[in-house]
Write a structure and sequence with these properties.
2 helices, mainly alpha, transmembrane, transmembrane helix, about 90% helix, membrane
Length: about 70
């Protein structure tokens, strides 16, 4: 085997190990972990949107109540 072939095989082995790390070899690899983190972040973002909408609705009702009470006096 020539030195070129040895170099190519060594580089291929490194690439194969990096692909196993990135994709996973039967278990969740780094890409799967990133997908899980993005999903968790998306769920948290949706919760925050819902909380902001509920808080906005509460403030609206509070202002309506204040205007109602102020109009009676």
């Amino acid at each position: 085997m020539t030195s070129f072939e040895a170099t190519v095989l060594a580089d291929l082995s490194v690439l194969k190990n990096q692909m196993k790390l990135a994709i996973g070899d039967g278990t969740t690899g780094r890409i799967g972990q990133i997908e899980d983190r993005v999903l968790c972040h998306d769920q948290a973002l949706q919760r925050m949107k819902g909380s902001a909408a509920a808080f906005g609705g509460f403030l609206t009702l509070l202002h309506v109540a204040i205007d109602f009470v102020a109009a009676k006096h």
